[in-house]
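Late entry, written up from scratch paper. The run itself happened at the end of the previous shift, but nothing got recorded in the book at the time, so transcribing now.
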Amino acid sequence: MRKEERLAQEITALLGGPGNIASLESCMTRLRVKPIDESKVDLAGIKKIDGVLGVVEAETIQIILGPGIVTKVASEVSAMTGKSVSSVDEEEDEDFSFEGLADRTKADLKKKNATPFKLFLRKIASIFIPLIPAIVASGLIAGLTNVIVRSGVNPESTLIEILNLIGWGLFGYLGVFVGINTAKEFGGSPALGGAAGILIINPGLANITLFGEDLVPGRGGLIGVMLAAVFIAFLEKRIRKVVPSALDIIITPTLALLVTGFATLVILQPVGGFISDLITKGLLGLIDMGGFFAGLILAGTFLPLVVTGLHQGLTPVHMELINTIGNDPLLPILAMGGAGQVGAAFAIYFKTKNQRLRKVIKGGLPVGILGIGEPLIFGVTLPLGRPFITACLGAAVGGAFQAVFKTATIAIGVSGIPLAFLMEDGQILLYLAGVLIAYVFGFIFTWMFGFKDEMAKDI
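Output as recorded:
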């Protein structure tokens, strides 16, 4: 029997059988199931299944299986239950539970995570999460192209021109995709959101002078795009309320786009540019002035942000840094969060005698090294508690190193080892040295005072 078949059968049985599954969803690493009768679900048993890296309890039961395998298991469960599998965003639900938090109800967690700031970041995350596969792929191809050019290949050769076309193409039109997703997220027509994005990035802006100033294509970046897309979505819904149904398809989108066009050029693009400058200059000033301590704090506090899913809200910040100064010094610092966790996981693996825990770590380490940290977070460090803290401490040391040596990426992508291909010229070894430092200190802190084997008795 294949592994995914076995997992599907065991998971389905402990969920109460095929007839107890109301809905089935999958994301990058999780199988999400909504049971009909929760009393029939054996969560403790699911956690002990060989191949299950962790379980997150929220509005759905989220079983962490890891990238790749989750899709195959979802297909098997679908075949067994007759339920179709839908795809959802990785961070759609950020509630979690583990030993030590059992007395906190789901309602309490929902209330805690419903603050205006968290809801705002969740909206931003929902805009960018669907774009991550394309951004990662494009960034990695662009980074590999740079590595090839540095190795001596003629940058004007046909091969390099093609690779640049493939790698950098998305970033030239990213505003359109962001506009589409923003409008969708705020209840507008996706196509109109894309049109709003074009208003910001259109090269034709360079031919327009407004109030004595030449307009600049791309001014305001993705923040300007989101402002324009939110505005057109708002306007579309308001116009639709007063326009007769027979004329809606003609009048509503035309008026919405026309008004948004003028509002964008006069107000929204300048406001977006101001916000963009404020964010980028503020972050650069913090990193430059804070140096060691800025890297220490930023990297050390990043993993808790990942746990809540709010880290995806930083994507436009990374893009604005690249658009404004040509590189991103923030991403290498934050990438140390995953590296510190890898170091902590290695320490636990060598220290524990718990065979189930060792299997979970063995399954989570490869993807953790490649920049996907969720299996190690929810399957290892977070349930154990203290190792999560020591992982943060190891990350802080690595982040301080990256800040001191001012490493930066030319694009955004997953963290871990693959990010090395996105580093600026001459910084690959520096970045990898920072990763190794985070590994080592995550390991040392966890080995010395972060883990005792009795902590693993309930894992």
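Confidence is low (pLDDT under 50) at residues 89-107.
(Scratch paper discarded after transcription.)
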